[in-house]
UniProtKB/TrEMBL annotation:
Signal peptide: none
One Pfam family matching this protein: PadR
Source species taxonomy: Bacteria, Bacillati, Bacillota, Clostridia, Lachnospirales
Listed name of the protein: PadR family transcriptional regulator
Organism: Vallitalea longa
All copies of domain Transcription regulator PadR N-terminal, residue ranges: 19-93
Matches recorded under InterPro entries: Tscrpt_reg_PadR_N, WH-like_DNA-bd_sf, WH_DNA-bd_sf
Alphabetized SUPFAM superfamilies for the sequence: Winged helix' DNA-binding domain
Coiled coil: none
Length: 119
């Protein structure tokens, strides 16, 4: 069994809920999401823009998030696309979290995990 393949699939399977949860806490633009995710996961979720934006587009197409443009002043004006959660997105987070808790519980039960990994 290839451990790297398993890690990749687990990351892919949890990315939507994690990104949705981050956006629910604070409206952010794409690169900021990448930075926050990297920081919060101690580098485990080290995303590239090519992995992030398809997820953001899916979340937006599902009406879980909305985007808006902001022109930020500074030495040069930068236009950034910010993402914010919708009411439907908040509801989806609750559904995702219930399903995640059930998934973890059942998986741990099947794997018979009791905190001892040294067998």
């Amino acid at each position: 069994m290839n451990l790297e393949r398993i890690k990749k699939q687990l990351k892919k399977g949890t990315l939507e809920i994690i990104i949705l949860r981050l956006i629910s806490k604070k409206e952010m633009y794409g690169y900021e999401i990448i930075q926050q995710l990297d920081k919060a996961s101690n580098g485990f979720y080290n995303l590239k823009e090519g992995s992030l934006y398809p997820v953001l587009y899916r979340l937006e197409d599902s009406n879980y998030i909305e985007s808006y443009m902001v022109i930020e002043d500074g030495k040069r004006k930068i236009t950034r696309k910010y993402y914010k959660i919708t009411d439907k997105g908040i509801s989806q987070i609750h559904d995702y979290l219930k399903e995640w808790q059930n998934f973890v519980f059942i998986t741990n039960k099947i794997l018979d995990i009791e905190g001892d990994y040294n067998e």
